[in-house]
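From the shared-data thread, chain only:
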Amino acid sequence: MSRLGGDEFGILIRDCDAEKGGVLMKSIADKVRALRFSWEKETFSLTVSCGLYYIDSATESVNKAMSGADSALIAAKEGQTQSYPEYEANDSRDGIPQRTS
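Structure, as tokens:
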């Protein structure tokens, strides 16, 4: 896991298919949402948005992978849902996630 900037983090997982990726993201998101912390007599909960991008032999470059992951994350943040948008690298509408898990 690595901080990408601001409040965004990335996780690289080897040999992870769409089904396993969706299950893993749900598990991570559920654990983050369950966290609570107190500050000056108030209790706060956390939220999380997750976007998935699958890297394979057809991935053109690191920049393309990062752009796809960012597009999926933006879709998750804008959707305000508990789904996990997946970026489709072969999408003709470049940058638009096509399905959710």
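The longest strand covers residues 2-5.
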